[in-house]
Design brief:
alpha/beta; five-stranded mixed beta sheet; two-stranded antiparallel ribbon; elongated; metal-binding
Length: 283
């Protein structure tokens, strides 16, 4: 941080952090050795570098100066405002954009007319105050919430579904989603049919993992031992394309590390927050 401040900047600094810049620098000198010598593994920024002592002190002082309730209120006001103003970034592509996506996916993986990849992840919650229900527990016996997303070749989210309990299968989650209803009603993944050599027609589709159902618009890998080489090769290509969604969720949680922690409870705001993280990630 800048070592010299104007009078106005000094006043603003003290108002924001609760101490003068001189006192701030002194506090940093007092705690520097401890903060540098014992850095928790989680204190890294988005670029993967350890947060500086000055940034760690600034974060702590700001929280102490404002109070947790103020921090919480400001955070939720920000989330609500940005979710409303930025939600246009999370939308299903128009025809021209979809043709570009399909072209890029075919170029990368050799999958003609593929429109994206679908996958899901769990967001762990504390147990709700109401009676424990097993449907909320995932396979690792954590109380969690499912977040499903569809991504394009750039790992940008095109559609999300969230708020459903972690004990649901991804197949069931898909069938409960508005996206499923749109696809079944011919309003999604039902535009240009691709005709290959030999007259074979391929409609628009997504690629998904073995947990998803095989549908006319959702292609899953073959499951069997001793598959022919050609089928194994298809599975490899399919898996590479599907990994776009897996990687997108990994990057999402890497950027917003709160998603890797236990969220307090699955109330309306937590559902809103999980949606907001995805919206902001697409900007």
């Amino acid at each position: 941080m800048n070592s010299s401040l104007s009078n106005d900047e000094e006043e603003g600094f003290k108002y924001f952090f609760g101490v003068s810049k001189k006192t701030f620098d002194y506090i940093c000198s007092l705690v520097r050795e401890d903060l540098v010598s014992r850095p928790p593994s989680g204190l890294i920024n988005i670029e993967g570098r350890l947060l500086s002592v000055e940034k760690q002190v600034a974060i702590a002082l700001r929280r102490l100066a404002s109070g947790q309730s103020t921090v919480s209120q400001v955070t939720w006001r920000f989330i609500e405002a940005l979710e409303e103003r930025a939600k246009h970034h999370l939308k299903w592509p128009d025809s021209n954009r979809m043709e570009e996506i399909k072209s890029k996916l075919e170029e990368a993986f050799g999958l003609p007319n593929c429109c994206g990849a679908i996958d899901g992840t769990h967001i762990i919650m504390t147990l709700p105050t109401f009676k424990h229900q097993t449907i909320g527990c995932d396979l690792e016996d954590n109380y969690s919430m499912l977040l499903q997303g569809i991504v394009d070749h750039e790992m940008r989210f095109l559609d999300i579904v969230t708020g459903w309990p972690g004990g649901m299968t991804v197949s069931r989650l898909l069938k409960c989603s508005g996206f499923f209803k749109l696809c079944e009603g011919g309003q999604r993944l039902n535009e240009n049919v691709r005709t290959l050599s030999g007259g074979v027609e391929i409609r628009e589709y997504l690629v998904g993992g073995v947990g998803y159902p095989l549908l006319p618009w959702l292609i899953t890998p073959y499951e069997s031992n001793g598959l022919p080489a050609s089928i194994s090769a298809f599975n490899a290509v399919h898996g590479a394309a599907r990994s776009l969604a897996v990687t997108a969720f990994s990057q999402l949680k890497g950027t917003w590390r709160i998603l890797n922690k236990v969220m307090w409870r699955p109330d309306k705001r937590k559902l809103q927050a999980s949606s907001w993280y995805v919206v902001y990630f697409t900007i």
